Amino acid sequence: MTTNYLFLVIAGSAVVTWIPRIVPFILSKKVDFPKWLMDFLSYIPICILTALLFQSILEVRTGKLPAIDLLSLVACLPTFLVAIRTKDLMRTVIVGMATMALLRLFF
To answer: For this UniProt entry, which segments traverse the membrane (predicted)?
Structure first.
């Protein structure tokens, strides 16, 4: 009985996770959105990436102002340059990971 219950919980969790992530992509293929909406939606990836970037650079401390994580900030510089120059996501990610790994190795 416990094995069936566990399987049902895992399967139910997978379905509940799958529905909001996949169904919008399926539905958006069949609907023609207005241009203004498509223009608005085109800014969402850069907004999310910027929020994630600032979240990793800033260290939140309880009761104090946020501090800057210098290693993360230094790692952003070559990563940003590679992103601007190549406009290749794979190279940008590799440079960012390698830079952070080297900085953590030496500092």
So the answer is: 6-28, 40-58, 64-82
